[in-house]
Amino acid sequence: MPFITDSALAELALLFNLLCATLFGGLIGLNRQLHHRPAGLRTHALTALAAALAITVIQQLQPGTADAASRVAQGVLTGIGFIGAGVIVHHERRYRVEGLTTAATIWVSSMLGLACGTGHVLTAAVGLALTLLILVLGNRLEQRLAGRGPNDDVSLTDDDKPN
Predict the structure, then answer these.
(1) How many CA within 13 A on the CB side of residue 161?
(2) Where do the TM regions start and end (predicted)?
């Protein structure tokens, strides 16, 4: 009767971490897609997966080296900033900036990917739950706190409002 080796268990854990990263990013992306935003399920899932892969590979190449992992995380987050910038649109005539929430969710997806890639799946799951809670309830809460009053001349708009 064959037993599962430590190496096989490690590979299964790696697979689980990558699947969780992809799923978590995909769930956030599904929310964005349902709100008809430019970055949806695929973008968020791929962002989370890429972050998880980057941190996993460096941990396999240089195990136990926190400095290398820190540099990879910094590089991932910097690169993700450029992707996030691609979904932010500035309307000069209407004095509005749109896409900030979607840009933030891309950044969060990469963080969830980094957490999953380092084996902190529970932390990532809590981050996912909080993110979805904010996305689902945040707009209603903002409206209630703001009293639904008129905006100033220059405003940042929440990209979750219906088109």
Answers:
(1) 10
(2) 12-31, 43-62, 68-90, 121-138
